[in-house]
Amino acid sequence: MPKARAIAAVAAVLATATLLATPAAAVDRGKAVYIGGTLPAVLEKAQAPIDLKSEEALVFSPKDTAPVRIPWSGVEEVEYGQKVGHRVKTAIFLTPLALFSKARRHYVTLAWKDADGKDQAAVFEFDKNDIRPALATIRARTGRDVVYQDEQAQKQMGGAKD
């Protein structure tokens, strides 16, 4: 009986550690999170599919809201940045070695003119596996170079130095 309790306790600790190690706000592949901007109908932190394949516009389709279309021809600036954080929860509950690994969040800011000629902006967070193809597609569709927030972001994405 004591052996069964020990196994159950170890299993409970491992399950808790796994839940804590999993990022709660991870972005799903093929989706983006709207961080903020001038889109009044879209809630901040809304995660939804994002379609970059259309030759006319980027389409972000959040639940309970009409899809948002950002015309490629109106995009005036594309900026890429990242936030790097250490996995403190994992280090506390699993292993201190987790402090040496980094969790990166990938942000793309788009600035464009809408149909009325008004300035608009939106910041989207992308999955780590989607960010490179997303930036390449956005660059190709808009004809705009990506502006990097800092040297580290430029290095991570293989951007050319000026």
CATH class: Mainly Beta
Q: Care to count the β-strands?
A: 8
Structural class: alpha+beta
The CATH architecture category equals Roll
Write the H/E string, N to C.
Answer: HEEEEEHEEHEH
Largest β-sheet summary: 8 strands, mixed
Distance between the termini: 68 Å
Describe the structure.
The structure is a single chain. With 162 residues, the protein is of the alpha+beta class. The chain has one domain (2-156): Pleckstrin-homology domain (PH domain)/Phosphotyrosine-binding domain (PTB) (PH-domain like), CATH 2.30.29.30. Helix content is 27%, strand content 35%. Strands 4-3-2-1-7-6-5-8 form an eight-stranded mixed beta sheet. Strand 6 (102-113) and strand 7 form a beta hairpin. The longest helix has 20 residues, at 2-21.
What is the topological layout?
Layout: H1 2-21, E1 31-37, E2 46-51, E3 57-60, E4 68-71, E5 75-86, H2 88-93, E6 102-113, E7 119-126, H3 131-142, E8 146-148, H4 151-156
Parallel strand pairs: 5-8
Antiparallel strand pairs: 1-2, 1-7, 2-3, 3-4, 5-6, 6-7
